[in-house]
Amino acid sequence: MKALEDKIRAEGIVLSDQVLKVDSFLNHQVDAELMLLIGQEFAARYAEAGVTKVLTLESSGIAPAVMAALALKVPLVFARKQKSVTLKDDLYVETVHSFTKQQMNEVAVSRKFLSPGDKVLIIDDFLAHGEAALGMARIVEAAGAAVAGIGIVIEKSFQSGAAKLKEAGYRVDSLARISSLTGGEVRFAEE
Ligand code: 5GP
To answer: Ligand 1, residues 24, 29, 102, 125: which to mutate, most atoms within 8 A of Cβ?
Structure first.
C-alpha cells in the first residue's frame, strides 16, 4: 500500500536491525486519515469473506482495526492484556510472548463477544514472530469461531511470523512488507 510505505519512509525510525518505531502515526500519535485508508484496504480485501467480527490486541492494533470494522460494518473486539487472574470462567485467556517487552503476557477476551458462528478478521499493527497473531487465533478457535484471515499493517518479512502463520494455514494480508532494517534503512519486499 503506497501511502503507508511513503509514511514509513518519511517518518519511520529504525531503532535496530529488528525494530521499527512508528510512533508519529500508529503507536502513539495516530494519523486517522491513514488509518481510514488502511481500514478500507482491509475491508476491500475481505469484502467477500463473510467477516462478522474484527479482533485485535490492545492498544496499538485498535486504530487500524476500528477503521476496518467500520468499513466492514461489523463490531471490533480488542483482546485485553492483563495480569494473571484467578477467575477466568467468563474469559478466553491465552499466554503470548511480547516481542517489544520480551515477557509473557496474558491476553483475554470475554466469552460474551465471540461465538461459534463468528468469522473473525484478526488485525495487528506489526508482525514479527507471529506470537500475538497466533494467540488471537487460538482465542478465536477456543470460542469455536473461524479465522477469516490475519491483516497486518507492517510485516517484517525477515522475521519468522509470516511463514509461521501461512504454515498454520491462515490467510495473511500485510499492507507493508519490510525485507530489511539493516544499516538504519527501511527496505520493502517486492510485491
Ligand atoms: P509478534 O507477536 O509477531 O512477534 O510481534 C508483534 C507484536 O509486537 C505487535 O503486536 C507489536 O505491538 C509488536 N512489535 C513487533 N515488532 C515491532 C516493531 O518493529 N515495532 C513496534 N513498534 N512494535 C513491534
So the answer is: 125
* CA–CA distance, 83 with 180 (Å, rounded to integer): 34
Question: Is this structure's pTM higher than 0.85?
Answer: yes
What would the pLDDT profile of 51-101 be if each residue is shown by its tens digit? 999 999 999 999 999 999 999 999 999 999 987 666 678 999 999 999 998
Q: How many domains does the chain have?
A: 1
Structural domain range at position 82: 2-188
Q: Which three cell numbers stand for residue 5?
A: 510505505
- Return the CATH number at 76: 3.40.50.2020
Rounded distance from Cα 70 to ligand 1 centre (Å): 24
For ligand 1, atom 22, which residue shows the shortest CA distance? 21
**Ligand 1: centre distance to CA 161 (Å):** 10
